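Thread: DDE superfamily endonuclease, structure

OP (GT): Posting the sequence first so everyone is looking at the same thing. Length is 111 residues per the record. Can we get the structure tokens written out before standup tomorrow? I want them in the notebook alongside the other entries.
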Amino acid sequence: MRGSKGTVARYYQPWPAPVQAAHYSDPSTLPAISQWVTALRQQGKVTPEVTFGIDSTDEPPTGILTDKTGAHPLRLSGFLVFGRHGLHVLDAHTFWLSYFDPSPPDRDWAP
């Protein structure tokens, strides 16, 4: 899934298995994150009741993941994570405690 600022969902490596995660780094990424959730639902990877909406009354806007357990706000700098247990929201601090990017986009790959 691509957004106006590059890749929306990237693979991150934790132990014991990698996950896909979308980093809410800019309000312009929220529509692409919403499209990613819709695609996961259409592919049967998440249940039909899982939705992602945008609360534009906040500044900056907040993404809202809704599932059978309730509504989970995705705030700026947070991550929407898709792993073996479905989708969940993590703040940046919690995310980086468990995951790392095996190939950061700013990495210089000198031979």
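GT: Both are above now. Quick notes for whoever picks this up: The longest strand covers residues 62-67. The chain has a mean pLDDT of 85.
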